[in-house]
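subagent[fold] <- orchestrator: predict structure for attached chain, return tokens only, no commentary.
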Amino acid sequence: MRDNAKEMDALTKDKAANAETMNSVEHMKMHSQITETHLAQLKKLIPPFEAFYNSQSDEQKKITDTLFRTGKI
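subagent[fold] -> orchestrator:
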């Protein structure tokens, strides 16, 4: 997760640093790169999260499911 955060932070800083000079196509390409990076990061995170989820009790799973569904416990 920390590596993912560092990678995304670098991309968003790059976008922010160049936002004033990028044209519309460059903005779209940067957005695409950020989206693709986010997807790759999710794919890496799913297996360990699934193992963690499967190790939880039924009550813990209910709480986790509610949190993901609603953002609230």
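orchestrator: received. Logging for downstream: The chain has a mean pLDDT of 92. The longest helix spans residues 24-55.
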